[in-house]
Amino acid sequence: MRRTQPIVLQMLANSINKNRVAHAYLFEGEKGTGKKEMGLLFAQTLFCEKPLDGMACQECTNCKRILKQNHPDVHLLEPDGLSIKKEQIKNLQEEFSKTGVESKKKIYIIIHSDKMTPNAANSLLKFLEEPNSETTAILITEQLHRILPTIISRCQIVSFQPLPKDVLKKQLLDEDVPSSMASLVVNLTNNYREALELSCDEWFAQARSIVLKLYEVLRKSPFQAMVKLQEDFYVHFKEKHQIDRALDLLLLIYKDLLYIQLDKKGQAAYPDQWSEWKSDALQASTNRLSEQMTNVLESKRKLNANMNAQLLLEQLVLKLQG
User: Fold this and answer.
1) Per-residue confidence at 30, pLDDT binned at 50, 70, 90?
2) pLDDT tens column, 242-282
3) Which of 2, 141, 142, 321 is the least crowded, having the fewest Cβ atoms under 10 Å away?
4) How far apart are CA 220 and CA 210, in angstroms?
5) 8 A C-beta contact, residue 75 and residue 176
6) Residue 208 — left, alpha, or beta (φ > 0 → left; ψ -120 to 50 → alpha)?
7) Is the pTM of this model over 0.90?
8) Minimal CA–CA distance to 19: which of 98, 105, 96?
9) Axis-axis angle for helices 192-199, 165-174 (nearest 10)
10) Is 306 within 8 Å of 244 (Cβ atoms)?
11) Going from the N-terminus, what domains does the chain have, and what CATH number goes with each?
C-alpha cells in the first residue's frame, strides 16, 4: 500500500495518530486500486495490539483475525446477489446497537455501496446521521455518482488513484509474466487481477499476434490487409467485445510509433517491436499518427453504436492505409 496508494495511506495514518478518525469514510476509485485492502488495513491499525510507526503490525492476533475477516467487531457487508438490501443494513444496525465484544470500537465496511437498494440507502443514511462515537463506517465504491448525495455529504471522501504502470508491471514480472506481455497488459488495465488473467490467457496471446500481423500487412497494401481480415482476424475476433479488444491492441501500436518519435520507450506497449518499427515511426508525421489513432477510436465508437463490424473494419483498414 505504501507504493500503490501512498497519499491515502498517509492521510489515514495521520487521522489515527492525531486521534481524528472520522465516523464515516467513502473510499472511491477504479476497480483494482486497493480500496478493500486499505479498508482492512485501516481496521487492523485501529485494533492493532502493537502498531509500528502508527500502522498495523500485521502480526498480532487482532491483525490476523481482521485479515481473515473473523474479528467480532469488524463487519464486512457485500451485495446479496445483485444488490445490498434493506434487511442487510437493518441486521448491521442491530449488531452495532450492541456493545463491542472485545472493545468499545466497531467498524463496518460496505463493499460496492453503490449497489444498495433505495430502501437500504435510506436506512444507512439514518445510521450515519446518528453516529456512535466509537463506530467507524467505510463505504467502498467504483461508482461515486450512484451514491446518494446525502450519504456522500456525511462521509469523508478518500479518492484512490489508478495503480501506477511501473508498480503493476513489477507485480506481473514478479509472477513470471514475460516482459513483453506485462508491458502490453499494463496499457490496457490498472487492475492487477485482470492484468494477470490477460497475461495468462491463450486467446489474448493469439489476439496480440494477429493484430501485430495485421499491422505488418497494412504497411504493404489494402488488398493484403483485406485478405488478412478474412484469413484469421474474423475467425479469432467473433464477438463485439473481442473486436473492441482488437481495436485497443491496434490503437496501442500507433501510440508506440508516437512514443518512438518522442523517445519514450518506458511507456511502450510493444517494446519488443521497437527496433522493427523505428523506420516506420521516423517516416510518419505526428499528424498522420494522430489521424490514424483517431480513425481507430472512431471505429470503437461506431462498433459500440452497433455498426456492422465487418464493414467497419474494412473501412478502417482503408483509412489506415490511406
Assistant:
1) confident
2) 999 999 999 999 999 999 999 998 899 999 999 999 998 99
3) 2
4) 16
5) no
6) alpha
7) no
8) 105
9) 50
10) no
11) 6-162 (3.40.50.300), 201-321 (1.20.272)
Angstrom distances, CA of residue 265 to CA of 147, 164, 275: 40, 16, 11
Q: Reduce the DSSP state of residue 242 to 3 states and report it.
A: helix
For cell 482503408, name the residue. 318
Which has the minimum average pLDDT: 185-194, 213-222, 267-276? 213-222
- Alpha-carbon distance of 208 to 203, in angstroms, equals 9
> Rounded distance, CA 235 to CA 100, Å?
60
What's the rounded Cα separation, in Å, for the pair 308 and 315?
Answer: 11
Longest dimension (CA), the chain: 75
Q: How far apart are CA 227 and CA 223, in angstroms?
A: 6
- Name residues whose C-beta falls within 8 Å of residue 212's C-beta, 6 or more positions apart in sequence: 253, 270, 273
Q: At 92, phi and psi to the nearest 5?
A: -65, -45
SS3 string, 62-124, reads HHHHHHCCCCCCEEEECCECCEECHHHHHHHHHHHCCCCCCCCCEEEEECCHHHECHHHHHHH
Q: Where are the alpha helices (DSSP H) in 113-239?
A: 118-129, 149-152, 165-174, 179-185, 192-199, 202-218, 222-228, 234-236
Burial of 106 (0-12, 13-18, 19+ CB in 10 A): buried
Q: Are 79 and 115 in contact (CB under 8 A)?
A: yes
CA–CA distance, 166 with 267 (Å, rounded to integer)? 9
The number of residues making up the chain comes to 322
DSSP secondary structure letter of residue 176: T
CA distance 19 to 105: 13
